[in-house]
Every structure is written in C-alpha cells, then in structure tokens.
Design brief:
The chain is of the alpha/beta class. Helices cover about 35% and strands about 20% of the residues. It has 17 helices and 20 strands. Strand 5, helix 4 and strand 6 form a beta-alpha-beta unit. The two termini are about 30 Å apart. It binds ligand BES and zinc ion (ZN) (2 copies). One zinc ion binds next to strand 10.
Length: about 500
C-alpha cells in the first residue's frame, strides 16, 4: 500500500473512504476543527448522521461507524468511517493504533482502493505529529497484512487497499507528518518482510535459502555479509551448533551481516536470531500437535534479518553484527541422541538431555562467536526458545531475561513505545545450578520443576562471559492464534519495531 501526505483535507486527492477520529463523550461542535471543516464540506451531513446514530457509536477506541452519504446529496465523499479515539484526556498512541487498525480493516472489507485519513489527535498537541503519522502508517500497513502467496485463484486472494493518504491542514505539522510516514513505511515494510518469511513453508526457507535472503538484504543495504558453511563452522569449533544440524540433510549455514556506521561507532552490538527453519524436536520428537507450527522456529532470524533491511535508511551510529545460526532440527541417522556430549566453540562441554532444546545449542555458538571472534560490546538475542514462556505470559508479552538491567530496561521501553509489549523474568543462581550436568559442564535442560524459560536463558547467559546481554523469548508472540490491532493471526514479525526503535533512540 502506498502512503502519502496531502495538505488539503477537503479539496485535495479524493479517496473512496475518508476516515476521521472522534473523541468519546463529546458532541460534534467539540471535536477537532479539521473534522468540522470536513463536515461543512459535506453540508453537515456527517454531524447530522452522527447525532442520529449517537446511541450506537460512542467513540471508544477501536469502535467504528461506517457512514454512507445519501446519493441524493451532492457531497464530495460518499463514504466515511468515524473511528473512536476514546476519551480526549486519555489520548495516547495506543488509541491511535486501535482507531487506525479498525478503520483500515473496515475500509478493506468495504473493498476501498484508496483511503484518506485525518492525523488523529494531532490537534491536541500532546503527542508529536511525527509519532502519530508514523503509528497510523505502521499500523495501517500491518493491520491489513495477509499472506496470499500460495493462493492460486485470484478470487481467493484478499482485497488490497492501494493508497492511504494522511491529510492535515496544519502547516506546522507538514514536515513532521511526512517524516513520520517515511519512518512508518520503512518499519512496516521490514516487519511484513519478517512475517512473510515466518509464514513461508519450511521447504522454501531452508538454511541455504535463508542465507540467500540474507545476501539480498545485505546487497540492498550495502552491508558486508559472511556465510560460514559447515566446514568453516567446524574450524571455529562450533560443535554445539553443528550437533543440531546432524540429523538433517539440509546443510547448516551460519550467517553474519555487518553494518558499520560512517563515523566511529559508539559501540558494537550483536543482534542474534534463532534460525531453526524447522523444529521436529529431533529424536525427542514432538507430537504432531506440537510440530504443526514449527516452521516458525526461525522467527528470531526473520526479525534480525528484517531489522538489517532498514540499515540503509536508519543509519544508526553503532556498529551492528547480525548473527543467524540456521539449521533444521531433524531425526536422521546421524542425529544427536539424548546424553550425547558436544563442545561449544568456547570449550564448554554440553550434555544433551533433550534434542528438542536445540535453540540454546545453536545460540550458544552464536553468542560465543559474538563475544570471542567479533568482540562485541553487547548482545541481544531473539529466539522462539521455549513453550514455557507462553505458559507464563501468553501471547500478550514477549519474555525478557538479562544479565544487565540497564540494557533490558531500554529494550523494554523501546518495545513498549512501539506497542510490542514485554515482561521481564528473573534469573538467579537456583536456575544456574539447575543446568549443571553430572558428566559435562552444563546440560541443555533444567532440573525437574525448574522454570523452563529461565533454564533456557541461563544456558545462553553462560556463553556471554559477562557481556551485557538481553534475551527475548518470542516463542508465544511470534505467531499468534488470534488477530490483534497489528495484524491477523499467524506470524507477527515481533521484534522488528522494538529493535529499530532501540537502535535509533536508545544506544
Ligand atoms: N522451538 C521450540 C519452542 C517453541 C514452542 C516455539 C512453541 C514456539 C512455540 C523449542 O525448540 C523447544 O522445543 N523447546 C522445548 C524445550 C524443552 C525440551 C526443554 C519446549 O519448550 O518444550
Ligand atoms: Zn525444539
Ligand atoms: Zn526450537
């Protein structure tokens, strides 16, 4: 969907549907001047209709009302969507999200080709119009996302809105709205890209294919890329990563993309994404119900690759090394077995208790590589690591675990600002003790009765050597069973908005 700005609300670019935000508990004369101008141009038809309908439409955030002008009247626009912004005193970007998402979805169901919208709440001057325009653009693009690539019949493909126009007559806001649109387009494009790859069937996103995608992203953003094949990984001693790949016929790929700023960087950050392109569980085979969605086990990889796709435009002033260990977790004749012992590249011996706890095994070498070879200053990893995180937090929050409170606080803030909710879980020595092994240094499972998400986290922590590190367990937020304001059920592309905001504003 193309998104553009129009300085003329009434007489500018026409559109099939016009969206206007309405505050709750106010009559028409108390709403924004822009809405009143619009009404005048419509010969007061809008205000009359709303008064008429006021019993039904309250203006709660997320509530919408489709208003169709009678054909007998010569009014410039035929269809309006009034979308609730909630109470003026509580106005927030969250209200903008709900209002924009429900309006654009209604416009989509009305099969509109073009939609024009006011910049909700900009008149209040409580929130920067840049942020409002960014949010409207982001949410609108993401809310109507669909994955129709494999529908072979045109009539099965969902309707697409071609053009969204943000309109404002306030000259002071023009530049900010334009800049907000640009940011919103960049972020929503990156996040949709992440969604596309998470939704993709596993046969079409093997480690080799994933490395080709990464190469394309690197090329398009003038970034350096290095893809380590099995032999190179062997030379680095990545026995933990390679052990997971042993059961698969698909060769593993260890993908590294490097962004270096023009000026000396403030610091060097590793962004690591779990890239298990299919997780059968290995010999500890998952039941069918648990395996059904395991194409999503590369959602961390998708999020960090997508984040790198914004580098040309974002140009953060830190050095970034993105690392994706990519492999399948399968059951072939060479597959690792429970109670095998493998060595990570830092020399740590690991007893494999469960072949389905493979995410931590591949991330161990990725973290060790970031610390010992790339010598990064801090690490952020995104991984669909444990089912346990969903038990704790459900689909509403990404789980956050860290060895550095300051870093985690900034990431959580960056996430919350972008509507990607996060919640921190504690790490402590009880959990660290629970991954000690009888025969090796550590094991890839906690003791019985110990917190599952944290057992995964302390395993990763072992390889950070004290470098600031924050782990985002996205197992329950990467793929959702029910639509929310940011999109349909299925892949969410979670993490992209958080990382872009973090890299831009918190480093
Ligand atoms: N990929 C799974 C985690 C997962 C579960 C992701 C549900 C998305 C949705 C991970 O590799 C896994 O299997 N974890 C095990 C760990 C256990 C064996 C300690 C789990 O959560 O059951
Ligand atoms: Zn697994
Ligand atoms: Zn997994």
């Amino acid at each position: 969907m193309k998104v553009s700005f129009d300085p003329k609300i009434v007489h500018g670019t026409p559109a099939d549907i016009f969206v206007a935000g309405v505050f709750k508990g106010k009559n028409f004369s108390e709403q924004s001047n822009e809405l009143k101008d619009l009404d005048q141009a419509q010969r007061d038809l809008l205000s009359k209709t709303v008064e008429f309908e006021s019993g039904k439409f309250k203006g709660n955030a997320g509530e919408t009302l489709l208003v169709t002008m009678p054909t007998s009247q010569s009014a410039p626009t035929r269809k309006f969507i009034l979308t609730g912004l909630g109470e003026e005193d509580n106005f927030s970007l969250d209200a903008v999200r709900k209002a924009s998402a429900s309006a654009i979805r209604l416009a989509k169901s009305e099969k509109a080709e073009s939609v024009k919208t006011l910049v909700h709440g900009a008149c209040l001057k409580t929130i920067d119009p840049y942020r409002i325009a960014q949010t409207i653009t982001e949410v609108s693009n993401l809310a109507i996302y669909s994955f129709d690539k494999y529908k072979t019949k045109d009539h099965d493909k969902r309707h697409e809105i071609k053009h969204l126009i943000l309109a404002s007559s306030n000259q002071d806001h023009f530049d900010k709205i334009n800049a907000g649109i640009q940011r919103g387009v960049m972020v929503s494009r990156a996040q949709s890209f992440a969604r596309d790859w998470v939704n993709e069937p596993p046969v079409n996103k093997t480690p080799i294919i994933l490395s080709e995608i990464a190469k394309k992203v690197a090329r398009e953003n003038d970034l350096e890329i290095e893809v380590l094949d099995k032999n190179k990984c062997l030379k680095h001693g990545m026995g933990s990563f390679l052990s997971v790949a042993r059961g698969s016929d698909e060769p593993p790929m260890f993908i590294v993309i490097k962004y270096r700023p023009k000026h000396p960087p403030k610091k060097h950050i590793a962004l690591i994404g779990k890239g298990v392109t299919f997780d059968s569980g290995g010999l500890d085979l998952k039941p069918a119900s648990g395996m059904e969605d395991m194409k999503i086990d590369m959602a961390g990889a998708a999020a960090v690759i997508a984040t790198m796709s914004t580098m040309k435009e974002l140009e953060p002033d830190v050095a970034i090394s993105m690392i994706v260990p990519a492999t399948e977790n399968m059951t072939g004749g060479k597959a690792i077995k429970p109670r095998d012992v493998v060595y990570a590249m830092d020399g740590t011996s690991i007893e494999i208790m469960n072949t389905d706890a493979e995410g931590r095994l591949i991330l161990a070498d990725a973290i060790a590589y970031a610390v010992n070879v790339l010598k990064v200053d801090e690490i952020i990893d995104l991984a669909t690591l444990t089912g346990a995180i969903g038990v704790a937090l459900g689909e509403a929050f990404t789980g956050v675990m860290t060895n550095n409170q300051e870093q985690a606080d900034k990431i959580v803030k960056a996430g919350n600002e972008e509507g990607e909710r996060m919640w921190q879980l504690p790490l402590c020595d009880d959990y660290r003790d629970a991954i000690k092994s009888e025969v090796a240094d550590i094991k890839n499972l906690g003791d019985k009765g110990q917190a599952g998400a944290q057992a995964g986290a302390v395993f990763l922590e072992h390889f950070t050597e004290g470098k600031p590190w924050t782990h985002l367990d996205i197992a329950s937020t990467a793929y959702i069973s029910k639509a929310n304001e940011y999109g349909p059920k299925g892949a969410t592309g979670v993490g992209v908005r958080t990382l872009v905001n973090y890299l831009d504003n918190y480093v």
